[in-house]
């Protein structure tokens, strides 16, 4: 249903991810948590919006500068003839919601002056197809999670024929690891040792209010993502799925949704109301979406560290 396109610049230590529908625009809803978001066209995906559709979703590093990536994607799609032709003879207008994370303090070369790299990265991403699902990719390339490396993670699951997939760029002020060991907070959602198989050392270990390895700076976080459902959903149901999916961040990161975060999750599904909304099905899909988000956070961090550390997960090399 979604084609994932990534581009990143190792010198600048930042990147862009573009999520493109496979067959026309998708229904879209959004939920924003935390106190420091950098977003575009979220109101156009809101419950009172006229259409609530997206021709693409852009996730980017760069804080506010990253919003330029969505401008480039909108221009490219319009040039291809994709979008809404509101008046005959005028350019099509694509709806391209976007959200950005803060990776300006990760040591990369950020002296770009009046020409931030995000539009160029977005154009590169549109030309690049990626088979890799999780790791230091796209919007997650320059990300951190607490004191550890962040990344981009993908996880999916199936409920009664509907596939739910989470795509998450992990850039959290909170830690993905439980204190005193190398077990992820999201370890219950691991499948087949895919993230190292570490488990908590003892049920009676006291858990501090804040882990000691949270990110040091303020206003330097934000997790971004999109949850897609392969079956048509009402807009009300899709909005609820986006809200419930945010719980996955809280399961995988401690703390989450802080005043310094701008945690933003989009929810996408094929257009068409389908059958009448069933509250139980919505609840089940939302719960599964939260599980997938938690697992995607874990996989994004795990594969990002594996790509940089000489020995996978020996203390997770600090950035």
Unreliable spans are: 309-319
Query: DSSP strand (E) fraction?
Result: 15-25%
Order of helices and strands: EEEEEEHEHEEEEEHHEH
Task: Please tally the helical runs, counting DSSP H or I stretches of 4 or more residues.
Answer: 5
> What's the CATH superfamily, by name?
L-amino peptidase D-ALA esterase/amidase
Rg, Cα atoms, Å: 19 Å
CATH architecture name: 4-Layer Sandwich
The level of helicity is 10-25%
CATH class: Alpha Beta
Key features of this structure:
319 residues, alpha+beta, L-amino peptidase D-ALA esterase/amidase, five-stranded mixed β-sheet, globular, disordered C terminus
Layout of strands and helices, then pairs:
Elements: E1 2-9, E2 14-21, E3 26-32, E4 39-40, E5 53-54, E6 57-60, H1 68-79, E7 98-100, H2 118-126, E8 144-145, E9 148-149, E10 151-159, E11 162-170, E12 224-229, H3 235-245, H4 247-252, E13 264-269, H5 279-308
Parallel strand pairs: 6-7, 12-13
Antiparallel strand pairs: 1-2, 2-6, 3-5, 3-13, 4-7, 8-9, 10-11, 11-12
């Amino acid at each position: 249903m979604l084609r994932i396109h990534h581009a990143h610049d190792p010198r600048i230590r930042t990147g862009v991810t573009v999520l493109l529908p496979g067959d026309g625009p998708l229904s879209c809803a959004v939920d924003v948590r935390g106190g420091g978001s950098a977003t575009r066209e979220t109101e156009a995906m809101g419950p009172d919006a006229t259409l609530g559709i997206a021709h693409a979703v852009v996730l980017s590093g760069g804080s506010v500068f990253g919003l330029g990536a969505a401008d480039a994607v909108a221009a490219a799609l319009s040039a291809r003839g994709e979008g809404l032709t509101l008046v005959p003879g005028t350019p099509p207008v694509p709806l391209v919601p976007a959200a950005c994370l803060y990776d300006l303090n990760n040591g990369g070369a950020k002296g770009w002056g009046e020409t931030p790299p995000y539009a160029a990265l977005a154009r590169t991403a549109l030309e690049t197809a990626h088979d890799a699902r999780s790791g230091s990719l796209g919007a997650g390339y320059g990300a951190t999670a607490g004191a550890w490396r962040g990344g981009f993670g993908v996880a999916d699951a199936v409920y009664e024929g509907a596939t739910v997939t989470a795509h998450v760029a992990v850039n959290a002020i909170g830690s993905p690891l439980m204190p005193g060991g190398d077990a992820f907070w999201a370890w219950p959602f691991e499948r087949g040792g895919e993230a190292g198989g570490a488990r908590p050392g003892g049920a009676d270990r006291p858990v501090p209010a804040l882990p000691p390895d949270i990110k040091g700076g303020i206003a330097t976080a934000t997790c971004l993502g999109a949850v897609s459902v392969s079956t048509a959903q009402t807009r009300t149901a899709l909005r609820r799925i986006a809200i419930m999916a945010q719980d996955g961040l809280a399961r995988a990161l401690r703390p989450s949704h802080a005043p310094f975060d701008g945690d933003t999750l989009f929810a996408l599904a094929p257009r068409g109301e389908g059958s009448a909304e069933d509250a139980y099905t919505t609840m089940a899909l939302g719960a599964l979406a939260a599980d997938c988000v938690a697992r995607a956070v874990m996989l994004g961090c795990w594969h990002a560290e594996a790509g940089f550390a000489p020995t996978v997960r020996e203390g997770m090399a600090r950035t």
